[in-house]
Design a protein that fits this description.
By secondary structure, the protein is an alpha+beta fold. Helix content is about 45%, strand content about 15%. The chain has five helices and four strands. It has a four-stranded antiparallel beta sheet, with helices on one face. A hairpin with a 6-residue loop joins strand 2 and strand 3. The protein is flat, with a radius of gyration of 41 Å.
Amino acid sequence: MKQYFLIGFLSFFLIVLLAIVFFLLWSFKANVQFIPQFMQDNMTQSVPTNNNPTWQEEIAKWTLKDYTPAAEQFSMHFEADTSDFKEKSKYYQLVINKYDIYSIFCLKQTLNFFNIDYFLLKSKDNPEIFLNTDNKTLIESIIEKLKDYKINAKAKEIWL
């Protein structure tokens, strides 16, 4: 019972609201020439007279010229703030011959055993291993340890 009463009340309210909207639209349609006072004031001020044309009208009256002005030499000089730049660091790239899951696992365990900072960069074909150390003997001992797992490795010195 309550549902029917609520639906009836809402539909009655909607019909009354639509009737008011249609009445207002009909009354404004009857007075099409109606322009509010503030709009009339703006319209009379914005209409330009022929005595004082706007800058857009002046530019539109200019004749078209078929030449291009010569360009002066233009140079700029920048002084970049290099105080935040760091010098390149020396890293070693470890090149290995096996790239299966077990070899990468052995490689990670070996590098963690020697407590060396490294990062692996995964590319399409094979991962790249970069070691952050300057100790050449440590690199050679890592290569020897990887030979125990039958992983052949080489170290290349790179600067990043």
